What does this fold into?
Amino acid sequence: MKDTLLLDAGSGGRASRRLVDECFIRHFDNPLLGRMDDAAFIEDIRPPIAMSTDAYTVTPLFFPGGSIGTLAVHGTVNDVSMLGARPQYLSCAFVLEEGLSLELLDRVTADMARAAKEAGVLIVTGDTKVVPRGACDKMFITTTGVGGVFADPAPSGRNARPGDAVLVSGAVGDHGLTVMGSRENLSFLTDVASDSAPLNRMVAAVIEQAGPVHALRDPTRGGLVATLNEIAGQSGVSLVLEEEAIPVHESVRNGCSCLGLDPLYLANEGKCVCILPAERAEAALAAMRNFPCGAEAARIGEVTAAGKTPRVSLKTRIGGVRLLSMPEGVPLPRIC
Amino acid sequence: MFSESAFQDPRLCRALLARLERALGGRSLRFMEVCGTHTVALFQSGLISMLPASVTHLSGPGCPVCVTHDEEISMILDLAGRERVILATFGDMLRVPGPDGQSLKHAKAGGARVEVVYSPLEALILAKKNPDAVVVFPGIGFETTAPTVAAVLLTARREKIGNFCVLSLHKLVPPALRALLDDIREGETKIDAFLLPGHVSTVIGLAPYAFLAERFRVPAVVGGFEPADILLALCLMAEQARDNAPAVRNAYPRAVNEAGNPRARAVTEQVFAPVDALWRGMGAIPESGLALRPEYADMDALKRFGVARSKSSSPKGCRCGDVLRGRISPPACPLFGKKCLPASPVGPCMVSTEGSCAAWHNYVEYQ
It folds into this structure.
C-alpha cells in the first residue's frame, strides 16, 4: 500500500478496489462481505434482507437535477434495490462543519425528506456530529438502508451467464458530467442535469414482469465500464457491448468530447444495469420503460464466455472493436 | 452547429477503407500521427482494428504530457513544493511521476496547493482570488495552447495582477518532426507518411510543414479527428505514395485554414520567443520550444523563482523515448503491462490518457 491516500482511491476504479481489498477486506473478511455486491444479502434473518451503506460527499452540495440530500437517499435506496429487495428503512448520520449555514442544512434535509417520500422509505434513526471548521467540507452524510429481499434467487454480480442480455435503464454519464460542470463552473455545459432518481419501484416491476434476473447493479462511480468490468470479473465471463445501442444524451456526448472524457466512465445516480437471460430481455425493457427513470432503457450487449481473462469490449459505431478497460482513478480532463 | 456524426457514418468509412486498399495496391504504409487526440481517436473509434494489415500506425511525439521532459517535471514539482505557491495545472499533469516516482498527486496529498484548472484563464482568476499566494501555471502544450496562455499573460499585465506567472514549457511540432526525420538511423524502418495534427494546424497552417515533402519526400496530410477524417487523410497519403508525389495536403478543411490563424500566431509571438527545448526521448531540439520574452520576465516562473534545471534521466528500462520516435510499439517495451501500468506508470506515455502506451493498454487486447 502507498504511504498516503490519494484521491484516486475514491474513484470507483482499480485504485478504489485496491484500497478495499488491501485494507478493509483484509481486516473484515467474511462471506457476506465477500460477495461484493451493491448490498449485503443477509440470509440468516428470515425472510432475507438486503443492507447497504454509503457515505456522501459532493462539491457543490446542490447541482442541476439534485443535491447531496437526494444522492444520500437515492444512492442507498438503489444499492438495496440491486439485490432484488424493497428498501424500507434508512438511517442517516450527518458530519457537519462548524459555521455551516442552517438554511443550507434545512434545504438539504428537505431534499432528503422529499426523496425518501418519493422512494417510499422512512428515515428512522440518525446521528449528528459537528466538527471544527476545516475538519470537513460543509457536510458529509452517511445513510444505511435495509429492505426485504423478494427476488428468488437474489441477483448478484456473480451470476451473469454466457448468452445473457445486457440492459441499461437509460442514458449514461449525465450525473458525472453535471457535477464536474457545476464544480468547475464550465459555462459551456448548459443542458445537462443529474439523473439522481430512486430505482426501487422500477426494479420491482422488472423482476415481477420479467422474472428473476441474474445481475443488477447501479453504475455510479467509475460509470458503466467499471460496473460491467466488476461483473465480468465476478462472474468469470466477457461482455460485448454495441456502441450504437448505448443511450447517451447529445449534450453529454458534446460536453465529454470537449473535455476529453468518455461518458461510459462517468457516474450515474439513477440508472441500473440488468443482466438476464436473453429471452426475457424484451419483457424487462418493457417494464423499465413504464417508468420515467427507465424511459430510455436499451439492450446494449451480451454476455459471452470469457476468453483468456474476463473482458468488456465494445463494437464501435463504425464497425471496429476496442476494449473497455477498468478505469484506474478519477477521470481527468485532458490538455487541449 | 455542424454535425460531426456525419464523419462517423459506417458506410462512408467502408467506402474510404476500400479507397485506401485500392491506393495501397498491396504496398505497406507506416504512418505516424503526432497528436494525442489522433491517438485516442484511432483507438476509441475502433478504427485501428479495421485498418488493412499492411498499414502500420505509429504514435509520434504528439501528446503534450508525454513529451514533457523529466527535468521539466522536476521543475514543476519543485515549484509545487514552494511556500505560498498555488500550482494551477491541467488535470492530466497530476499523475506524471518525477524522477523519484513522486507526482503532483503525491505532492497534493502531502499538503502542496495544487489546483486543477480547465484553462489558463481560470488560473488567472485563482490568482485574483488568492492575493496571498503566487499562482504558477505550467504552460504545457503545443502551438494550440500557447496563444491562450499568451492572451492570459497579456490580460494579467493589463490588469496589473502581480501574483500570476507561467512556467513556459510549450513545444513546437515542426522542429520535432524535422529532428525525427533527421535522426532516422541507417537500417531503421522509416516513416512513410505523417498524419499532421488538426488542432495545431488550425494555428500554424500548412506552410511550416513544407520541408516534409520538399526535403524528406514524405507525404503529410492534416487530418480531423472523426474516423472518416482520418481515413480520408490515410487515402491521400497512400495515393501520394503510390504516385510518388509527396505533398503537404489538408484533409480537414472544415477546421483548418491553409494559412492558419495569423491573429493567434501574433499573440504568441508578442509574448513568446522560440528557444531550444528538451523533449522526452528526443533530447534537445533547436528552436523547438517557447520561452517568455524578456519584457515578461516578471511573469516568468523560471526567473521569478530561480528554478534550477537538475540533470535527470528517464527511469531504468523505460522506452517511452523509443515509442515517441516510432521505433517500437508500446507492447515491445519490457515494462509495458508489467511494471508500467496506468496505476503505477513508469513513463509518461502510460500516464496521459492520450499517451500511446495508455491507449494500447486501455483499448487493445494485447495479451
